[in-house]
């Protein structure tokens, strides 16, 4: 089930979207707001392309120029955000911040940013209907490990954007394909350590043989779900991998154009047809029903006929010496004084 189109009653109150220099996930925010069925507040600190999202349910706040030391009209973004939340009518709300790293830079303190985000999450949880706090973070970020902790939010949907080139790299260098082409245990054991090394992903994209930029039309999405969004204390974590297309939204990995080569060359071929050697011969090699019956009635030699098997005779060696053998019963060493 898509983390974007998840049923509202089971929706997680906190959605953490993680991008990197190698692969941006900003297109997911575009689709999230375009498909919004509830009122949405967007606070744009980083990507100006999000300001084009307009609609009766989407309210955008342009904070791109609100930079301390560069704008004479600078205001603390926390005051602006608190004021906007108070003016939102009651009901479900999608509260989107792009990005919290820029917000932390404007505030000037990681700890103060963390406290402010905790305050916003409390406001989201206090609303009468299911609402959601959506924050966009660019890894590596000092806020990322703090926001992933259960202490911040027991329920979490963590969406990580990966370039499709990463899966192509695993298939060639580690001979490991995404499930179900490879066992899940083997795949995750290799995928997680490699994907967490951000510089390796950057090298795949921006290296000498890289494509020069992340794929804007398609990306691989790692979805980590903790809790069920209904206030339970379930501690299980579900981790899945799926594709995402700019034009189709969430899709299976096998339907991604960038990964088509992985699935076309690994399709299980049908077993070859076994030819019957008795065909096209000048004589008959098969048996009729009567011939098979007669064959079954023929007694076979050396087959136990049902009689009780007698106990075997103990083994013994019998030796008959010939004339050339020198056999003497006397002790050959009796003349020695031992």
TrEMBL record:
InterPro entries: Elp5. Residues 322-338 have a biased composition (Acidic residues). Pathway: tRNA modification; 5-methoxycarbonylmethyl-2-thiouridine-tRNA biosynthesis. Keywords: Cytoplasm, Nucleus, tRNA processing. One of its GO terms (cellular component) is nucleus. Belongs to the ELP5 family. This is Elongator complex protein 5. The lineage of its organism: Eukaryota, Fungi, Dikarya, Basidiomycota, Agaricomycotina.
């Amino acid at each position: 089930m898509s983390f974007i189109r998840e049923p509202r009653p089971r929706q997680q109150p906190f959605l953490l979207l993680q991008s990197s220099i190698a692969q941006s996930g900003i297109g997911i925010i575009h689709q999230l707001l375009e498909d919004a069925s509830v009122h949405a507040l967007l606070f744009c600190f980083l990507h100006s392309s999000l300001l084009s999202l307009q609609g009766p349910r989407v309210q955008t706040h342009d904070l791109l120029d609100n930079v301390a030391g560069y704008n004479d009209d600078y205001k603390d973004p926390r005051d602006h955000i608190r004021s906007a939340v108070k003016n939102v009518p009651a009901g479900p709300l999608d509260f989107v911040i792009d990005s919290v790293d820029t917000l932390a830079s404007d505030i000037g303190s990681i700890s103060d940013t963390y406290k402010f985000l905790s305050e916003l999450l409390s406001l989201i949880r206090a609303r009468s209907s299911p609402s959601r706090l959506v924050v966009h973070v660019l890894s590596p970020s000092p806020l990322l490990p703090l926001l992933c902790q259960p202490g911040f939010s027991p329920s979490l949907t963590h969406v990580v954007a990966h370039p499709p080139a990463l899966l192509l790299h695993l298939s060639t260098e580690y001979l490991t394909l995404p499930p179900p082409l490879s066992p899940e245990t083997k795949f995750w054991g290799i995928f997680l350590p490699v994907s967490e090394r951000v510089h390796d992903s950057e090298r795949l994209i921006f290296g000498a043989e890289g494509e020069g930029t992340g794929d804007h039309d398609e990306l691989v999405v790692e979805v980590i779900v903790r809790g069920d969004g209904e206030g339970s204390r379930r501690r299980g974590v579900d981790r899945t991998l799926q594709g995402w297309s700019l034009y189709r939204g969430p899709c299976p990995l096998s339907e991604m154009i960038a990964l088509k080569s992985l699935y076309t060359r690994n399709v299980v071929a049908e077993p070859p047809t076994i030819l019957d050697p008795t065909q096209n011969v000048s004589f008959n090699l098969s048996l009729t029903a009567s011939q098979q019956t007669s064959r079954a009635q023929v007694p076979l030699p050396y087959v136990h006929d049902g009689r009780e098997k007698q106990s075997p005779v103990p083994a013994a060696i019998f030796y008959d010496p010939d004339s050339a053998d020198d056999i003497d019963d006397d002790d050959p060493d009796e003349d020695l004084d031992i």
